[in-house]
Design a protein that fits this description.
The chain is an all-alpha fold. Helix content is 66%, strand content 2%. The protein has 13 helices and two strands, in the order H-H-H-H-H-H-H-H-H-H-E-E-H-H-H. Strand 1 (248-250) and strand 2 form a beta hairpin. Helix 6 runs antiparallel to helix 7 (144-172) and helix 6 (118-135) runs antiparallel to helix 10. It is globular. Bound molecules: Phenylacetyl coenzyme A. Phenylacetyl coenzyme A is lined by residues 35-36, 39-40, 43-44, 47, 74, 105, 107-108, 123, 127-128, 131, 134, 195-199, 204-207, 210, 220, 270.
């Protein structure tokens, strides 16, 4: 019997053939990719804000230069991702309007405040560490433009993670006050970082289909477990304590058992009630409004050039 278009599509996915923008794809595949890629892009752009908060207060010129470069990289990641979503027919204006109206989500992690310099270390170490674990498999995601964007993003994220770990190492080897700053930041960021991987598989409506379509290559719980297994030895190396009383090595599974994330807090933050949710969104809306004259000027300039026959 002849395969339907949808069956042919699934056959290609199963053979690890990349899907490209002009290929036929089920509408639901397109929709879920636009959802995930645009939310990923929003996370990068909103993710500039918590660290941007410390650029003027970095403890040295060297630290300031590194932090500036990292925050600029995140802007770049957002731009590659918006471009990847555009290849699916999403318009950038619409994606941004959805962010500004609160309709589109972005990662819960960026709704928490950055209270001390140690938070710059913790974000690089833990948050970028989580981002890498999630994004390295996305280099093999089934949609070509998304997969290719992830290759460069992951290279830059590795540098971000190293710089975060190095800040933590410096603080951990510093004065007792500095070590305490590092521990206090770890205490605040550990659980929100575990939330970055999304709800438990049993409560994740998108995972099953996204795994079938090879948009996701690992489930939320699989990645969360890998993260804990990777980070606990690093925390031990730093001489810091992971704030989880239930954390134990499990010889049989060759991984750590760990405590339960506060899912009520997770959903509350996802719904827009995080400690900095309103502030973050307002910063993006203000940037959009204050940038209007730049967009107008760029359009006027482009129109003049094209009237002169130069593109
Ligand atoms: N926050 O059914 P699932 C970075 C939503 S890294 C907010 O499991 P899915 C780098 C989810 O959207 C951070 N919402 O969904 C950086 C869905 O709602 P929807 C960004 C969350 O898509 C570092 C609902 O819950 N990385 O930016 C969260 O299969 C430092 C049900 O969930 C990516 O976006 C959450 N944590 O799995 C930048 C990676 N978790 O959309 C600056 C790509 C879930 O149906 C500084 N994305 N939700 O209305 C993914 O891998 C997936 O989309 C997941 C969620 C794993 C995030």
């Amino acid at each position: 019997a002849e395969l339907t278009q949808e069956e042919q599509f699934q056959t290609r996915i199963d053979a690890d053939v990349r899907i490209e923008p002009k290929d036929w794809m089920p509408e639901a595949y397109r929709k879920t990719l636009i959802r995930q890629i645009s939310q990923h892009a929003h996370s990068e752009i909103v993710g500039m804000l918590p660290e941007g908060n410390w650029i003027t207060r970095a403890p040295s010129l060297k630290r300031k230069a590194i932090l500036l470069a990292k925050v600029q990289d995140e802007a770049g990641h957002g731009l590659y991702l918006y471009s990847a979503a555009e290849t699916l027919g999403a318009s950038r204006d619409q994606m941004l309007a959805d962010l500004h109206s609160g309709k589109a989500k972005y990662s819960s992690i960026f709704n928490y405040p950055t209270l001390s310099w140690a938070d710059m270390g913790t974000i690089g170490w833990l948050v970028d560490g989580a981002a890498i674990l999630n994004q390295v498999p996305l280099c093999r995601t089934s949609y070509g433009p998304y997969a290719r964007a992830m290759v460069r993003v992951c290279k830059e994220e590795s540098f971000h993670q190293r710089q975060g770990f190095e800040i933590m190492q410096t603080l951990s080897e510093g004065t007792p006050e500095q070590k305490q700053m590092a521990q206090e930041a770890l205490n605040r960021w550990w659980w929100p970082t575990l939330m970055m991987f999304g709800p438990k598989d049993a409560d994740s409506p998108n995972t099953e289909q996204s795994m079938k379509w090879r948009i996701k290559r690992f489930t939320n719980d699989e990645l969360r477990q890998k993260f804990v297994d990777m980070m606990v030895p690093q925390a031990e190396f730093l001489g810091l304590t992971v704030p989880d009383e239930k954390l134990r090595w499990n010889e049989a599974k060759q991984g750590y058992d760990f405590g339960e994330v506060d899912w009520a807090e997770f959903w509350d933050v996802v719904k827009g009630n995080g400690p900095c949710s309103r502030e973050r969104l307002q910063a993006r809306v203000d940037a959009w409004n204050e940038g209007e004259w730049v967009r107008e000027a760029a359009l006027a300039h482009a129109a003049k050039r094209s009237a002169r026959g130069k593109v």
